Please model this.
Amino acid sequence: MGSCESPAFWNVNIPPEQHTFSCPEYLRHLTPKDVGIIATPDSEYTAQSWDEVRQIVATNSLESFKRVPSDLRRYRSFVYRLVQDYGSVHAFLLKERLRWEEPVKPRGAPFELEDDYKILFNDWPYGVDKRIVHLVVWTKFSLAEDPKTGDLTDQARRDTEAFMEKVFYENVPRERVIWFKNWAALKSVNAVEHFHVMMYDPDPCFVQRVTQGDVPQCLREAH
Model:
């Protein structure tokens, strides 16, 4: 008779011949949330819809974003190898993705000069509707936060909205674009300022233009 036991969480979503008795190093020390996600078969995962994404951002429930289980596994493996090769996510980001030299300093006021920011794909996007494009705007300048609330100051929000108007809202209907800045506790990269932009079914030509032909790491790693 076959065994009815569920596989260990680290053996879910991989072929039986790749199962291991012990947990791989890169999947140790995960949060309970990540363990639960990786233990979920991909076939049981439901992509978050555009309406759900908008609700998450509107209610500031950013911790509700999740990756597809197998994508989260690949992401953890990638980060583990990256830290071994580069020493930190920060070092990899500056050298390979942004190609900025330290110390990172802006030449102008927020969003004034194009070489003070860079728009790239989110390398490991959330498990959302495939029509949703997830970009990250990396900046050499800080986006000021209210120390009492952790939210952007009114001026920083006005500056960001003006940038969004010029770059995104003129190319994608406003109701199909949202942006948000992760709280510090949720950031995977703290050392370089950034915020997220998600668009529903944008023109691929616009996406290619605004990212200057960028390819996310999740696709690079697939080859």
Summary: The chain has one domain: 42-220. Strands lie at 117-121, 132-139, 177-180, 193-200. Residues 42-220 form one domain.
